[in-house]
Structure formats: structure tokens, C-alpha cells
Design a protein that fits this description.
The chain is an alpha+beta fold. It is built from eight helices and 21 strands. Helix 7 packs antiparallel against helix 8.
Length: 395
């Protein structure tokens, strides 16, 4: 076997290996001629005269360091002091345990004991829990700063919590909250961020209440009121200055955090906008379902002598005027006798006008007739309700 990886794969297929069987297939051991290199497994310094061998991922490693996950060695062969624990099951590693090395002093049982009670957890999960613990851990402030919640001062030695530059009081002082709610804090007014004309067409206007971009370090995603907007035109190399294009404007948007009343009003408008967007999405979905039903179950008929029928007389439940001038658009009509018509304008360039069976002011449209169809009635009722909610009864 010339490929070392094949040897390692064969060795790893055995459940338990002793040192003799491993050493039989070890790569050739050589003596380091120069100092200064570092082991690819344990990251320790390789001294002149030490026994080394080539590592699978390039470079060199100590001859006594195992490589994971290609083969297992005993803990004694890896040369570490007793007391270390398995990174998987968190149980102590014994001298004669079969282990594999992850480098940087991290080791794992070749097969963790079954009776450890599930107390151990994978390293990534423990790291995630440590991160959450760090974010909620209380500690004294080493430097003066400003709370990311109330915008109040943080004094040296004051108990705070947070991480990654987002620090705040354990309990914000009432005076700081009051100053922030008034929206007139001097430091609050000095907050700003930059926008480029290559990313947005226009900056927010003064006195407008907005939700700040999420990528801001301190106030990302918070609700604020714009106090001032400065502009600067960049003629050349705009990509280097945040324009988002070769040339254009860079706006410096100054803001203050919104008061409780301003925030409440903004959230109410945001909720209305969200509900309207969801209603529009539900209505369009119902229209698509009705159109599919018309294609599969509707009746496509012509008048006498294969002439187009007049446009149905009845209540227009929905009218899509987008592109109507150029031969596109849709109608949903409910006739007086309860017949439902789904009509698609078919007068644009490239359309097959021979399929048109409904007269319009242009080339004509394709209409499908649905009679006594319970599913169509359900969809019509849903579309009508959502359409009235969106445009109002007087539209």
C-alpha cells in the first residue's frame, strides 16, 4: 500500500488496536535536522534531533503524536499527563485507553464507554452553551462606556453583562431610561450611520421614524427618529467610500433612539404593513388556485359562428390592471346567475389571438366559465374578502 491514507483507513476499520499493530504500518520515522518547525498534531515545537514523520495534511509531526481520524493509539503513546478528559464524553482518559488526537491537547476515546450516563456532550454543543453563558454572565466593567439599552453611562466597576461590544446594565437606572425616552439626549443625537446611493435610491427624511439597519454595531434593528441627513458626492472610486457604485452620493444619517410613544406608533404601523403584505400574498395564492381550477374544470366556449362572446355582465370581484394597456391583465367576474368567469387578457404581441373567446377593447381575452363549482365559490369568497380588506369597499 503506497498511499498512507489507505493504510489508515484499514487500521481504522478495527475496533481495537494495540501499539504493535499500529507501529507496523507507521510512516517512516526520521530525525529532525533543523529546529524551529511545529508539529501538525500537537502544535508543539520540533527540536533538532527529535524523531518525526510526515503528516497526512502536509508538514511534519512528532513520531509519538497520533493522527485523527485515521488511526488510534493508546493514551500512553501520545505522551500526555494523566488527568485529561475525553472531548466527547467528558470522562477521564486512562493511560491504556485507545484514543485519537484532535491536536492542541484535545483527545477522544476511540469508543466512549456506554455507562457514562450521557453527561458528556459534543464539543460544539458545549462551546455554544459557553457562549450563551458568557453573554448572560455578570462582571464588573473594566472601562467606562455606554449602555446599549438605555444609552446611559457605564462607570468602571459597575456590574454589566453582554458580549461582542453589546454591553448593558444589569438593571438600567430610571434616570437614563427617562432621558432616552424623551429622545433629547445629547449623546443620543450624535448617533449616525452611512448610506450609499448605490444601495438605496434615497435616504430617510428628517423626523421620519425608521428601523435601523441590523448591521449597526450598537443600535442595529432598533427604532429611531432621523434628526439630520448630510450628503457628499463622490466623483471617483465610489466603491472605496461606501457609495456602492463608481460614483454617487454618500449620506450620513444622524438619528436618536425613539421614545416609547414613538416606538409604539411605529410598531403599530409595521404590524399593519405586515398584515397587509400577508393578505396580498394569500389573495394572490387564491387567484392562482382559481386560475388552475378554471384551466382544468372550466368551460372555454365561443359564441355563434365561432365569434367571441361579449364581456360577461356581472360583479367584478377582482381586476388586475398591470399591463392592461399592453394586452395583459386578469378579471374575475361573477354573473347574476352565479356563473364565475376567470378571464385573462390575451392581446399582447406574441400571444395566440385565435384562442380569444371574450371581446375586449383590444385584441380580446381568454375566458373560462365555472358553473356550480363549490371550490370556485370558496375561492371567490376568499378573494373578495381579502380584496375588500386591501382596497376598501369604495375602490
Amino acid at each position: 500500500m503506497k498511499d498512507k491514507r489507505n493504510v489508515y483507513a484499514v487500521l481504522n476499520s478495527f475496533e481495537r488496536l494495540n501499539e504493535d499493530s499500529v507501529s507496523k504500518y507507521k510512516p517512516r520515522v526520521i530525525t529532525a535536522s533543523y529546529p524551529g518547525s511545529f508539529c501538525k498534531i500537537c502544535h508543539g515545537e520540533i527540536k533538532k534531533g527529535e524523531e518525526i514523520t510526515k503528516a497526512v495534511n502536509g508538514g511534519y509531526r512528532h513520531a509519538t503524536c497520533g493522527e485523527s481520524p485515521f488511526f488510534h493509539l493508546t493514551a500512553n503513546a501520545l505522551g500526555y499527563e494523566p488527568g485529561l478528559r475525553c472531548v466527547m464524553c467528558n470522562q477521564p482518559l486512562e493511560i491504556n485507553d485507545q484514543v485519537q488526537s484532535y491536536g492542541s491537547g484535545c483527545f477522544q476515546h476511540a469508543r466512549c464507554p456506554k455507562d457514562y450516563g450521557g453527561k458528556g456532550e459534543p464539543p460544539w454543543k458545549r462551546a455554544q452553551e459557553n457562549k450563551v453563558k458568557k453573554e448572560t454572565e455578570e462582571f464588573p466593567a473594566r472601562y467606562p462606556g455606554r449602555c446599549c439599552k438605555c444609552d446611559g453611562h457605564i462607570e468602571v466597576g459597575q456590574r454589566i453583562t453582554g458580549s461582542s461590544g453589546q454591553f448593558h446594565h444589569i438593571q438600567c437606572p430610571p434616570t437614563a431610561k427617562a432621558a432616552n425616552n424623551l429622545g433629547g439626549n445629547q449623546q443620543n443625537d450624535k448617533r449616525s450611520y452611512r448610506l450609499g446611493s448605490g444601495y438605496v435610491s434615497q435616504p430617510p427624511s428628517v423626523e421620519q421614524t425608521v428601523r435601523l439597519p441590523k448591521n449597526l454595531r450598537s443600535d442595529g434593528g432598533m427604532i429611531a427618529v432621523i434628526t439630520k441627513v448630510d450628503s457628499q458626492y463622490i466623483r471617483d472610486d465610489g466603491l472605496s467610500f461606501g457609495v456602492g457604485d463608481d460614483s454617487g452620493y454618500v449620506w450620513t444619517v444622524h438619528y436618536r433612539l425613539a421614545s416609547e410613544d414613538e416606538e409604539r406608533k411605529f410598531l403599530a404601523k409595521e404590524e399593519v404593513k405586515k398584515n397587509r403584505s400577508q393578505a396580498e400574498k394569500d389573495m394572490q395564492g387564491a387567484i392562482v388556485e382559481l386560475e388552475k381550477l378554471a384551466w382544468s374544470s372550466g368551460k372555454h366556449q365561443y359564441g355563434s359562428n365561432d365569434q367571441p362572446l361579449p364581456f360577461p355582465d356581472g360583479k367584478v370581484i377582482f381586476k388586475d390592471e398591470r399591463g392592461m394597456l399592453y394586452g395583459s391583465g386578469r378579471w374575475i367576474v361573477k354573473a347574476a346567475d352565479g356563473t364565475i368567469w376567470f378571464i385573462r387578457n390575451n392581446g399582447a404581441d406574441g400571444d395566440d389571438w385565435s384562442q380569444n373567446n371574450i371581446k375586449t377593447g383590444g385584441a380580446g381575452a381568454v375566458g373560462w366559465e365555472l358553473k356550480n363549482n363549490a371550490e370556485a365559490e370558496r375561492l371567490i369568497s376568499k378573494i373578495e374578502t381579502l380584496h375588500l380588506a386591501l382596497v376598501g369597499p369604495n375602490a
